[in-house]
Write a structure and sequence with these properties.
With 345 residues, the protein is an alpha/beta fold. It is built from 13 helices and 12 strands. This is LacI family DNA-binding transcriptional regulator.
Length: 345
């Protein structure tokens, strides 16, 4: 018997059985056109029995390198602590599994060098394709340029970059809807918690919001448009700063719900109540938004659908089919945090 202190290989089993390694490979790799030509029924049975006895596991990475194909999809996400990104990934994983693919996720911390390193690691595994959730705005896209040059199937999710296939939401429209809501409420002095400058999501939402007010003949104060990370800590800090101004903004648009929740915490600390003293609108409509003491108005995105669409587009690219970007439609969910016109600060 072969040395069982090491995992069984095609070569070791071929030696044990007195067969050529290619014969064992055809049988165990399930080549439907080669199995019957490779061996008799008796030999096939012997090979499979030994593989079962030794608990043989195919080396999928080696097979992928040889065949230049894989059933794995790499998903690059900026951070999985973000509930929105985690929700999108969950739907990606489910849709991929239904299509016969496995996914693995790499957390890039929204840093381009880390993104490139994680992607190159995935390419060494000969993945079938990549879904990219952390592309940056601007003309320079090192990773996307690399994937296009190597003809690796890829698709963006939740981010939009001109010239690249994506499954995303119309974030500019979402910002426009938030602005329309606050304007019709009577709010004219409005601040924006705009998120990180490099993220297309925050930039598009901010652009749509500003555009609506400009169309009404109102220019928002640039010093009231603050950039920073997409988290509640930043929302609290920026909210504390803006609420301490004299005059202060009547209303606040935060480009994600965590920024809005942090801002509402800063309002609480100052004895102010959203929906009474100030108006607040967030973005993404995470489940927590409706469960707060003062339910948060928010722009709802079809996150699960976005993930499914990303997989569908990627599979088209993997199969060599033509594909066009899918841009989903957001909806405003008005709640108590923006129920009344606050007095000007």
């Amino acid at each position: 018997m072969p040395n069982q202190s090491r995992p069984a290989t095609l070569k070791s089993m071929a030696t044990e059985l007195g067969l050529h390694v290619s014969t064992v490979s055809r049988v165990l790799n399930g080549d439907p056109t080669g199995v019957e030509r490779a061996a008799s029924a008796e030999v096939i049975a012997r090979i499979r029995a030994l593989a079962k006895e030794l608990d043989y596991r195919p080396n999928t990475q080696a097979s992928n390198l040889k065949l230049r194909k894989s059933q794995e999809i790499c998903v690059l996400m900026p951070r999985l602590t973000d509930l929105v990104m985690a929700t999108i990934y969950d739907s990606i994983d489910s849709a991929a599994e239904q299509a016969g693919y496995l996914t693995f996720v790499s957390n890039t911390d929204d840093q381009q060098p880390r993104q490139m390193a994680r992607a190159e690691h995935a390419l060494r595994r000969s993945v079938a394709g990549l879904i990219v959730g952390d592309s940056h705005t601007g003309d320079t896209q090192p990773l996307l340029d690399l994937l296009a040059r190597k003809q690796i199937p890829y698709v963006l999710v939740s981010r939009q970059i001109a010239g690249h296939l994506t499954a995303a939401c119309d974030d500019e429209l979402g910002g426009w809807l938030a602005a329309e809501h606050l304007y019709r409420l009577g709010c004219r002095e409005v601040a924006i918690l705009a998120g990180e400058r490099h993220a297309s999501t925050g930039a598009d939402r901010t652009r749509g919001f500003i555009r609506y007010y400009r169309e009404q003949g109102i220019s928002l104060r640039p010093e009231w448009i603050l950039n920073g990370p997409f988290d509640s800590h930043t929302g609290h800090q920026q909210g504390a700063y803006l609420l301490a101004l004299n005059p202060r903004p009547q209303a606040f648009f935060a480009v994600n719900d965590f920024l809005a929740i942090g801002l509402m915490g800063a309002a609480r600390d100052k004895g102010l109540q959203p929906g009474k003293d100030i108006a607040v609108v967030g973005y993404n409509d995470i489940p927590l938004a409706n469960e707060l003491i003062v339910p948060l108005s928010s722009v709802r995105l079809p996150l699960a659908q976005m993930g499914r669409q990303a997989v569908e587009l990627l599979l088209k690219r993997i199969n060599g089919e033509s594909a066009e970007s899918t841009i989903l439609t957001p909806q405003l969910q008005a709640r108590a945090s923006s129920a009344v016109l606050p007095k000007a600060g």
